[in-house]
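Notebook, bench 3.
Goal today: get a predicted structure for SusD/RagB family nutrient-binding outer membrane lipoprotein from Spirosoma foliorum so we can plan the truncation constructs. The sequence was checked against the plasmid map this morning, with no discrepancies at the termini. Length recorded as 515 residues. Pasting the sequence as submitted so the record is complete.
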Amino acid sequence: MKFKTLIIAALVALGGSSCNTKSFLDINTNPNQAASTLPSYVFTNALNTTATNIAGNTNGQGSNELGFYWAGQWTQGNGYIITTTQFAYQFTNGDFNYWDTYYDNLEDYQYVINNADANNQKFLKGPSKVMKAMLYQQMVDLYGNLPYTDALKAAASLAPKFDDQKAIYESLITALDEAIVDLKANAFTSAFTTSDIAFNGNITKWIQFANSLKMRILIRQSKVSGRDAYIKTEINKIVTEGSGFLTGYEASIGGPSFFQPAAGQLNPVYDRWGYDATGAKRALNNYPRPTKFLIDGLKAAGDTLRLKRIAYATGGESTGTPGVSTKAEIAANYAGTPFGASSGYLPANTSSVGPSLLVKGDYNRPYILMTSSEVQFLLAEAKQRYADVTLPNTAKAYFEEGIVQSFRVLGANTAGAAAFKGSKIENYDFDSSADKLAAIAIQKWIALTNFNGLEAWAEYRRTNLPVTPQSIQVPDNKRPTRLFYPNTEAGSNVANVTAQGTIDAFATKIFWDVD
């Protein structure tokens, strides 16, 4: 297992107790230098690294991007030779290595936890524990069993044993409970709130994020036999705790006070798929394309307000009016690309990723980790599955609020969400939808588009919804169920990797994937 404690010695020279984010993003780090920096500096950099690892940047693909593809929301533009690793599923343990970057990032958060008390920065322990839990949840969803209890110990455990994925998931709930205790006990010192580029030191929002992550972890297990009583008990404990969930805002990283108009300092999504610091369009702007399945489905439901925020009309973003399509924004001018198509759908005649994600000049948006829309659909599923759980609202109310929050985060007029109430449109009108759980799953899939591909892919594997077309590049019905353990881990921790048995990326499922 690869270990790295991220050192930010250059930041120590900045002095003071808060972060100059422009200087912060200019630093170069030396992984061979001895560890000696304040936890607050490491924490800020760890959050930024989390955003980059998930989003990707000009150096490479983030984990979310793969999720957008395999969830059936995005495909590849035809201006490039088709990537067979992604769209023909011809990948090996040398591809999609998110393992190393995630564990490096986890080491950063562990450094903060280990050193916060000694540096009188106890307020960073709770947030770091929340972020650790989120990253481990994503790691389990990608790889299954992995090092957990024996991990993040540097030289004390160079070949850590793997823990059972089910046990890790259960431990994450406990870890989040511990994080909440730390958060309540240690308010941010005002001089250090700028170190927190997620919630600016707002403890209540950190707790609500922790509770929302708990809901994600619990509902992910809802189809696993024998877990109902445990899930209901834990949800009731969240309600009793009383802080609530992400409501009307997102868990996000960075923003106008952090990202800067300079090379290497942009929002990572903008940097990868949008524009450079001078405003020149990136070549990769033509790469991710919303799928035909996604766009045709939105059109068929009359969901045009969200369509116009999820995608640009054919021809892309106007050069003169940022955030607006070159062509008239009418349904007829939106065209998706079939998943895995290698020809016939050039950038000029297909829709591109829209203004909910990319607008020229908007380089400093916060990078979203979790939306309040996702949380509302988690609550809707919880109430629909477990009528006796102590959540105060009905499944219908949570479902409808999920659509409202989806409109809001996309930048669409939220009044448009009301049009679906009583509309009789399957999977949009709760009362008229024959399968309520399917309606919740499909609306969550739509709401995750452009924001969280990892969750969309995980939810697709869990629910098998929506029924997306197979890649044109694939002659059978097989789809990836997980990733291989990377060859870097197999080389440094061979005995423990071998102990996991033979991994078939099309048949070896994550424990919550029971169908």
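The CA atoms of residues 52 and 268 lie 6 Å apart. Confidence is low (pLDDT under 50) at residues 2-34.
Flagging this for group meeting.
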